[in-house]
Design a protein that fits this description.
By secondary structure, the protein is mainly alpha-helical. The protein has helices at residues 10-13, 18-24, 27-33, 82-86, 89-97, 102-115, 123-132, 148-151, 158-183, 185-190, 196-199, 202-213, 278-285, 310-319, 335-350, 354-362, 372-391, 397-404, 411-439, 471-480, 489-492, 496-506, and strands spanning 41-46, 56-61, 70-75, 80-81, 216-218, 228-230, 239-240, 248-251, 254-258, 270-271, 296-302, 325-331, 456-457. It has two domains: 10-285, set domain protein methyltransferase, domain 1; 296-506, Rubisco LSMT, substrate-binding domain (set domain protein methyltransferase, domain 2), CATH 3.90.1420. A hairpin with a 2-residue loop joins strand 8 (248-251) and strand 9. The protein is elongated and about 80 Å long.
Length: 507
């Protein structure tokens, strides 16, 4: 998972021959020799998408299992946690509360251990991590390791910015490693002359960090120094499924897995990694779950700080459980509920009359006085936001479907396309809900209220609101957003002024 003493990269070190693996025994054999009690699982292989890389392992049932069976119980002596890495629970808590993540500490430890080669107790486990190379269930690495060209698969998705931000965070942690190393108890004592940034270039640290990220387990009801754990037989050898409730749990002296469903011998064992959206699954584990009930997108709205009544509006928002900069979670299948949750907040931003603002402050609920023109302005702004977000993707939904139907599609392109396709479905459902509300307005001839201090929806320039979309035009956009590229805008938006405005904010 990281550099060996001969400066091998993570890719080269994964090319270990089967002969060597047989010579030293597989991961499970090593675990049994070192205290793993009899269990009900085995390791099996699935091929890698790249013929240059070896197949990846996964944990499967070795016999028929019933819900409630203990699949395996890994003793603490085979679990890597910060208290054992740093030799002191107090130091472990100090380091991780001083802005250095548990992942960075664990990655640094395994990097040093790998330099010991076969002398390291953890050699068989590190060899398995090298083989996996931080790849998820589709044998795809996290986007944190993708090239710039490969990241373009995520153009239009907020996940791309999240990947770049996470990469910058890893770089910051790397720059702090030397200071931390001198504080790190057993690490400093065991490797007194191995200064981290001299021993490992950033590229190798990043690879190790991503590999650890793909397999770390978050244990509950344990001390802070033990909450992040590397558990052999755990992820990424275990598959993730959003509708599964089985989790690795800390019990007396061990970490065990109790299955939540029956398995036939040979079937892959699945676990739950918490309520993570697909963007997190892709960044952390390199895959997307098409049936993820926790999948969601975020819409960020904020009150206009230039508004003379900003402080009063901020107070009114706080009294109703909202912030001056508010994020709204939009869950797959619950888009209409999310839109309805946004409306009171956006209406507040449109209040301009001081007497109306005082009425809002004196009321006990989140209700603003709503006029026909205000409601039209709020819904137009929201519809314009969703249209612009959809137009930000370089591919359409129909093009995504065509790509995914290609069995030879590059696996990184495949998982990226799966992600953006699901995001577009959420955005399109939000737009549909907004259009439905516009169509329910009693008078479509009413123009939107002027809004000199309209609330701000993140990533959309103010010019988006310079002309409102009529219900007919919105319906056309919604029905044709799969093909509304610049050379086809005329078919979708008949108004020349609207086309010019639309093109100005999507280009």
């Amino acid at each position: 998972m990281c550099a060996a003493s001969n400066s091998d990269t993570i890719v080269k070190s994964s090319e270990i021959t089967s002969k060597k693996e047989e010579e030293h025994g597989d991961l499970k054999s090593w675990m049994h020799r070192n205290g793993l009690p009899p269990c009900k699982v085995m390791l099996r292989e699935r091929p890698s998408h790249d013929s240059k890389h070896r197949p990846i392992h996964y944990v499967a049932a070795s016999e028929d299992l019933q819900a409630g069976d203990v699949a395996f119980s890994v003793p603490n002596s085979l679990v890597v946690t910060l208290d054992r890495v740093l030799g002191n629970e107090t130091i472990a808590e100090l380091l991780t509360t001083n802005k250095l993540s548990e992942l960075a500490c664990l990655a640094l430890y395994l990097m040093y251990e790998k330099k010991q080669g076969k002398k390291s107790f953890w050699y068989p486990y590190i060899r398995e991590l090298d083989r996996q190379r931080g790849r998820g269930q589709l044998a795809v690495e996290s986007p944190l390791l993708w090239s710039e060209a490969e990241l373009d698969y995520l153009t239009g998705s907020p996940t791309k910015a999240e990947v770049l931000e996470r990469a910058e965070g890893i770089k910051r942690e790397y720059n702090e490693l030397d200071t931390v190393w001198f504080m790190a108890g057993s690490l400093f004592e065991q490797y007194p002359y191995e200064i981290p940034t001299e021993a490992f270039p950033f590229k190798i640290f990043k690879q190790a960090f991503v590999a650890v990220q793909s397999c770390v387990v978050h244990l509950q009801k344990v001390s802070l120094a033990r909450r992040f754990a590397l558990v052999p037989l755990g992820p990424p050898l275990l598959s993730y499924r959003s509708n599964c409730k089985a989790m690795l749990t800390a019990v007396d002296g061990a970490v065990q897995l109790v299955v939540d469903r029956p398995y036939k011998a040979g079937e892959p064992i699945v676990v739950w990694c918490g309520p993570q959206p697909n963007s997190k699954l892709l960044i952390n584990y390199g895959f997307v779950d098409e049936d993820n009930s926790y999948d969601r997108m975020v819409v960020e709205a904020s009150l206009n700080t230039e508004d003379p009544q900003y402080q009063d509006k901020r107070l009114a928002a706080q009294r109703n459980g909202k912030l001056s900069v508010q994020t709204f979670q939009v869950f797959m299948g619950k888009e209409r509920e999310a839109v309805m949750d946004m409306l009171p907040y956006l209406r507040l931003g449109y209040v301009s009359d001081p007497s109306e603002m005082q009425s809002v402050l004196s009321s006990q609920g989140p209700i603003c006085p709503v006029s026909s023109c205000m409601e039209r302005a709020v819904l137009d702004q929201l519809a314009g936001y969703f249209v612009a977000k959809l137009a930000g993707y370089p591919t359409t939904l129909s093009e995504d479907e065509t790509l995914l139907a290609d069995p030879n599609l590059n696996p990184k392109n495949r998982v990226a396309t799966q992600l953006v396709r699901l995001e577009k479905k959420i955005l399109k459902a939000c737009l549909q809900a907004t259009v439905d509300l516009i169509n329910q307005l009693p008078d479509h001839s009413v123009s939107p209220c002027p809004a000199p201090y309209a609330p701000i929806l993140k990533c959309i320039r103010p010019s988006v609101y310079s002309h409102h979309l009529g219900p007919m035009e919105l319906s056309l956009v919604l029905g044709n957003c799969q093909r509304s590229k610049h050379n086809q805008i005329k078919d979708v938006l008949p108004s020349k002024k609207l086309r010019e405005t639309f093109i100005s904010f999507v280009s």
